[in-house]
TrEMBL record:
UniProt family annotation: Belongs to the peptidase U62 family.
Domain Metalloprotease TldD/E C-terminal: 227-314
UniProt domain Metalloprotease TldD/E N-terminal: residue ranges: 25-89
Name used for this protein in its record: TldE protein
Matches recorded under SUPFAM superfamilies: Putative modulator of DNA gyrase, PmbA/TldD
One Pfam family hit: PmbA_TldD_2nd
InterPro entries per record: Metalloprtase-TldD/E_C, Metalloprtase-TldD/E_cen_dom, Metalloprtase-TldD/E_N, PmbA, TldD/PmbA_N, TldD/PmbA_sf
Boundaries of every Metalloprotease TldD/E central domain copy: 119-219
Length: 338
């Protein structure tokens, strides 16, 4: 049986068993493979190939929910996983909002740019990894490149529920990074840059080396700035971090629970009228492209803030947080096998 058929068979089994035991359920399967390299003192210091696979279930029974996961697709393991979830649900608080509302959604992310074939040889990837460190060390006052590396990986996602939904997603990505430890006149500073892409030839190691080095050099003589009002120009990373600090404030779940300052403020002014904030479903060359959300609904553009007024909340469900938890547990299992 092929791997895809094995995954789909496991999903069908869990959903059928959940229904047989009088529960609704949704299932997330995440399978990933990764390859990474690091250099140290001109030699390859790390050559790592890893893979993970995890199936997670959320059961809903009598308005009570619980989750569980399994890394094994054996029926005995899936039975134990489901039993654990159903038993845990008995002791959870009833929540009328916890329902499975996505019905008969059949969506597959069909965007060629996110799943391009990788034909690059291991030798080419090793050469890039070694070049990152050497490129940093060839620059004046760069004493080391303590953090550097190359990585690529692929990820498969299957989302299904007892309401007939079955959505699938596959993507592949590449990245490289280099950090410079800059030393001069008894002072040190460190900075680095990352390059990401959907193909190996989209990576820009020169950007990582030069921009990281220049930033480390410029930070060497940095000093605190006096409190005051200043005009500011944000680079993309800094602006993303700034808005990221407020991400949970736009959560529909947080608004429902009343734990965001933006609760009950739809239609009201919450920012400068110069600000319009859009949650875009697709951006060319984006690294977060998917055709469906964490419940199985088709993704779409949502304007969160329009000319300073709150228009809507983010519809990202708690299931996404569950997936992140599953992924972390799977990675931990790979890194620290029993």
């Amino acid at each position: 049986m092929s791997q895809d058929k094995q995954l789909l068979s496991a999903v069908d089994y869990v959903l059928s068993e959940a229904k047989r035991q009088g529960a609704e359920a949704d299932v997330i399967v995440n399978r990933s493979n990764s390859f990474s390299l690091k250099a140290n003192q001109g030699q390859l210091d790390e050559y790592k190939v890893s893979s993970s696979q995890v199936l997670g279930v959320r059961v809903v029974k009598d308005a009570r929910i619980a989750t569980s996961y399994s890394e094994s697709l054996e029926e005995s393991s899936l039975d134990l996983m489901l039993t654990n979830a159903l038993q845990s649900a008995r002791f959870s608080k009833q929540d009328e909002h916890q329902t499975i509302s996505c019905v008969d959604s059949k969506i597959t992310t069909d965007i060629a740019e996110i799943a391009q074939e990788d034909t690059t040889s291991a030798d080419e990837k090793i050469a890039l990894s070694l070049a990152l460190e050497k490129g940093v060390l060839d620059l004046p006052h760069a004493s080391s490149a303590p953090y550097n590396g190359y990585a690529d990986g692929e990820s498969q996602l299957i989302l299904a529920n007892t309401q007939g939904t079955l959505c699938q997603h596959f993507e592949r990505s590449f990245s490289c990074y280099a950090y410079t430890l800059f030393e001069k006149d008894g002072k040190q500073s460190m900075a680095g840059k990352v390059s990401v892409g959907r193909r190996f030839d989209e990576l820009d190691p020169s950007y990582c080396i030069e921009k990281g080095y220049n930033l480390a050099r410029d930070l060497l003589d940095g000093a605190p700035v006096a409190t005051g009002e200043y005009s500011a120009i944000f680079d993309v990373g800094a602006l993303s971090s700034l808005f990221g600090a407020f991400g949970s404030a736009f959560s529909g779940v947080s608004a429902m629970k009343g734990i965001t300052p933006l609760a009950n403020k739809v239609g009201q002014s919450v920012a400068s009228e110069l600000i319009t904030l859009t949650d875009a479903a697709y951006m060319s060359n984006g690294m977060a492209i998917a055709a469906f959300d964490s419940e199985g609904f088709a993704t779409q553009d949502n304007i969160l803030i329009a000319n300073g007024q709150l228009s809507t909340y983010s519809t990202t469900a708690t299931l996404l947080a569950t997936l992140v938890q599953y992924q972390r547990l799977a990675r931990r299992a790979v890194q620290n096998p029993a």
